[in-house]
Automatic annotation (TrEMBL), chain A:
Signal peptide region: 1-21
InterPro entries: SBP
Stated family: Belongs to the bacterial solute-binding protein 1 family.
Biological classification of the source: Bacteria, Bacillati, Actinomycetota, Actinomycetes, Kineosporiales
PANTHER family: MALTOSE-BINDING PERIPLASMIC PROTEIN, MALTOSE_MALTODEXTRIN-BINDING PERIPLASMIC PROTEIN
SUPFAM superfamilies xref list: Periplasmic binding protein-like II
Any Pfam family: SBP_bac_1
Presence of keyword Thylakoid: no
Species, as recorded: Kineococcus mangrovi
Keyword entries, A-Z: Signal, Transport
Entry protein name: ABC transporter substrate-binding protein
Domain of life of the organism encoding this protein: Bacteria
Keyword Chaperone: no
UniProtKB/TrEMBL annotation, chain B:
Gene3D superfamilies linked to this entry: MetI-like
Lineage: Bacteria, Bacillati, Actinomycetota, Actinomycetes, Kineosporiales
Disordered: annotated span: 1-28
Name of this chain's protein: Carbohydrate ABC transporter permease
Domain ABC transmembrane type-1 residue range list: 114-317
Native organism: Kineococcus mangrovi
Listed SUPFAM superfamilies: MetI-like (SSF161098)
Subcellular localization(s) per the UniProt record: Cell membrane; Membrane
Family of this protein: Belongs to the binding-protein-dependent transport system permease family.
Length: 437, 337
């Protein structure tokens, strides 16, 4: 690397360039640049026409989207839809959409939005409100899926898939699933006698922790934000009872200490290995636990709605799912609107369930005998979604979820007591919805 | 953070005066114009890809992030912010005065993130340097199978960081290999010291070979004759190491250390994938990326601060390195020869 002459310039040149390489850090901030605000009422008015459009969504892992588009294209030769697939990483999908909206890209006609992004995109004026000419009939949909896409009393995106949490349990050990959290905890000695862990959800410091924390708080009657989304409401006894339930679970050992590192997959692994009696997870686990070669609980597990707080109602799941939004920059909004309705039609919803086990948004499909036979968890899933609460509907969701995750993690890992964690959570969520930091 | 390689020559050409006075003279008599013509496009390109983002980032950092208009619920541009974005990070001022950012906000995490970034840098780079030096000394010896050893040592370095992080994520799982081998039940991605240790171990595993390679390059240019002369003078192995190897390998070593220090100060993907920031392991770069999703302008301020920190560290190194290389190395080498 250095000549024997030992002159400094070679070394200095190299090191100097390295120093300047540090400038790369700056580019990070600058890349995100560009203005991000302003309602765009002009754009919302124009473009009422038909023509070819593009539908943008994350990677279609179960291969159900292209067949749906093929169906549409066969019936609408002059209004062809092209599928643009993004990566399968949610964060990157979000950032890709943001960049294209900022660039006012007319090629992103219909975009698939995770329900936690809708209010942010709506508040930035990027989504066509589904009112007036674009009014959508939502009467046959599951209510929480509509609520999650509603910002400022206006519907901004059409729900296309849903998702809710389920309680997986070992019916060989517990013949009747618990109806309430306390009942579930009282069953934990059974797990102990069998030398296995009792209950686990997703408690690692990531989005899953927000989901689980919100479920606990909502189940015990608390809430994170007020109805209008303008005030944090975590300083209530109900919210405390919810967080306390999880904290006590960890303290008692009813939730194993390693669950603080669990995301979806670690919990599923433990359950399928027969080392866990109760697991909170999404419906995707059902078919895997039935068919995985390594699953030891194939014939011994059942599903139930999440346990409630003892008042007879099931627990409040956090709502998962995606919706289709129409870009205000689209030149062919009429086609886009028709296509959105098509995605939501019973035909496509049924296809997506049978071909990719995607949870439908149409209520009646959950009662369809043929479908229930194929997907025995549908009735429980319906209960779960009907009682689900959307995660905080706020344009400042990234900051809100961060505030929840950090403080809930501190409480569950024991580095903060419940009261401090909750009051910090209240303050930081309030700070987040006031300005986004 | 990718456009690092192009920076080198251009910035050097811009910033550093030519060191050889003779050469400078020749630039003035005719060939100067041709030289300008030749490096012109490079400078223009660098201005576009380096200067423009920097200027934009710095100017954005003085703008307020868009806020909600309470009557419409829509975002409106924020306008001039003064130094509010810098107060947010440096003073943890979320709008209510110094230290008003409640725990759980990004603003409250700046100093924690700075601390943990420096902790990673100091501990990991020290470990990497020591291990790298040992590796390099071993690889420098002549023995059978040396080529295979050199190639295999480099494997960890060849693996992409994201893959390394995922690999160690599985190793450090609760029922993963690490706990089984050690017979422990440590929550490596949980809370406390364990996640920090996990990141340092993974980073050291990945980059010690890189250190070894750079140091080895330095070792190979040391003249064997120097050692022979020292041997004749009766210097033992330890003395030869301390008085010959170390001083002569020092320039290579320092560049390796500088390179790794800058890399570690900007570390993002390894902790992001391994711990996701659990147990206070969010680095400055992770904070920047998190903030980009909440507001670009505050993120610009943070990346400007991060840039200044990294630049300052680099600058101190160069001063330090430059002085030692020029004043110590040359005379010693001469004396030894």
């Amino acid at each position: 690397m250095f000549g024997k002459s030992g002159k400094s310039p070679a070394a200095r040149r190299i090191s100097f360039s390295l120093a300047l390489a540090a400038t790369g850090v700056l580019a990070l901030g600058a890349c995100g640049g560009g203005d991000s605000g302003g309602g765009n009422s002009d754009a919302a008015q124009s473009g009422n026409s038909t023509g070819p459009i593009t539908y943008v969504q994350g990677k279609d892992n179960s291969g159900i989207v292209q067949p749906a588009i093929d169906k549409w294209n066969a019936a609408h030769p002059d209004q062809q839809v092209t599928l643009k697939e993004q990566t399968d990483q949610a964060d990157q999908q979000h950032d890709d959409l943001v960049q294209n909206f900022q660039a006012e890209n007319a090629d992103y006609d219909v975009v698939s939005v995770d329900n936690i992004w809708t209010s942010e995109f709506a508040a930035k004026g990027w989504l066509q409100p589904l009112t007036g000419d674009y009014e959508l009939d939502t009467s046959n949909l599951l209510e929480p899926t509509v609520q999650a896409e509603t910002y400022n009393d206006t519907l901004y995106a059409a729900p296309t898939t849903s998702d809710g949490g389920l309680l997986y349990y070992r019916k060989d050990l517990v013949p009747t699933p618990p109806k309430s959290w306390d009942e579930m905890m009282s069953m934990c000695p059974i797990a102990q006698q069998n030398g296995i862990d009792c209950y686990a959800g997703q408690f690692a410091q990531y989005e899953g922790l927000t989901v689980n924390t919100a479920e606990a708080i909502n189940t015990f009657g608390g809430s994170i934000l007020s109805e209008d989304g303008k005030t944090a409401t975590l300083d209530t006894p109900e919210a405390k009872a919810g967080l306390e339930a999880l904290v006590e679970g960890f303290q008692d050992g009813n939730i194993p200490r390693q669950a603080i590192t669990y995301q979806e997959e670690q919990g599923r692994q433990s359950f399928e290995d027969g080392k866990l009696m109760f697991l909170r997870n999404w419906p995707y686990v059902y078919s895997l636990a039935k068919t995985d070669g390594s699953s030891t609980v194939k014939d011994t597990f059942g599903v139930a709605p999440l346990p409630g707080n003892g008042d007879g109602k099931p627990g409040a799941s956090s709502l998962g799912g995606h919706a289709a939004g129409i870009s205000v920059y689209s030149d062919h909004k009429e086609t886009a609107f028709e296509f959105v309705k098509f995605l939501q039609s019973e035909e496509i919803q049924r296809d997506w369930l049978t071909q990719g086990s995607a949870a439908p948004v149409i209520s009646s499909l959950y009662d369809d005998a043929a479908l229930v036979e194929q997907f025995p968890y549908l009735p429980e899933l319906k209960t779960s979604i009907e009682n689900a609460v959307p995660r905080p509907v706020t344009p400042f969701y990234p900051a809100v979820t961060k505030a929840i995750q950090d403080n809930a993690f501190a409480a569950l890992s024991g580095s903060k007591d419940t009261d401090t964690a909750l009051s910090d959570m209240q303050k930081s969520v309030q700070n987040a919805i006031a300005g986004g930091q | 953070m990718s456009s690092t390689s192009g920076v080198a020559t251009g910035e050097y050409a811009q910033g550093e005066p030519p060191l050889d006075p003779g050469r400078r003279k020749s630039l003035h008599d005719g060939s100067g114009r041709r030289a300008a013509l030749l490096i012109g496009p490079t400078i223009l390109l660098l201005a576009i890809v380096i200067l423009y983002p920097i200027v934009t980032a710095v100017s954005q950092s003085f703008t307020q992030d868009a806020g909600l208009d309470p009557s419409t619920g829509m975002f409106v541009e924020g306008g001039f912010a003064g130094i509010a974005n810098y107060r947010l990070w440096l003073l943890q001022d979320c709008g209510g005065g110094a230290f008003s950012c409640p725990p759980g906000t990004l603003g409250s995490q700046f100093w924690t993130a700075t601390g943990v970034t420096f902790l990673f840098t100091v501990v990991a780079v020290t470990l990497e340097t020591v291990l790298g030096l040992i590796f390099a000394l071993v690889m420098h010896r002549k023995f059978k199978g040396r080529a295979i050893l050199r190639a295999s040592v480099l494997v960890p370095w060849a693996i992409p960081t994201a893959v390394t992080a995922k690999l160690w994520y599985f190793i450090f799982a609760y029922d993963g290999i690490a706990n089984r081998v050690l017979g422990t039940e440590i929550l490596w991605t949980g809370d406390g010291w364990a996640p920090k240790a996990a990141i340092i171990i993974a980073d050291t595993w990945k980059t010690a070979p890189f250190m070894a390679l750079l140091i080895l390059a330095g070792l190979q240019v040391i003249d064997e004759g120097v050692y022979e002369a020292a041997k004749m003078d009766g210097a033992g192995a330890w003395k030869r190491f301390v008085f010959i190897t170390l001083p002569l390998v020092r320039p290579a070593l320092m560049v390796a250390v500088l390179f790794r220090t800058l890399d570690t100060l900007r570390m993002y993907d390894l902790p992001k994938i391994l711990t996701g920031g659990a147990g206070d392991t969010s680095t400055l770069s992770m904070l920047v990326v998190d903030q980009v999703r909440s507001g670009f302008h505050a993120a610009s301020a943070l990346s400007t601060i991060t840039f200044l920190i990294v630049f300052l560290v680099a600058f101190i190194f160069i001063k330090f390195l430059g002085a030692n290389v020029t004043e110590q190395r040359a005379p010693k080498a001469r004396k030894a020869a």
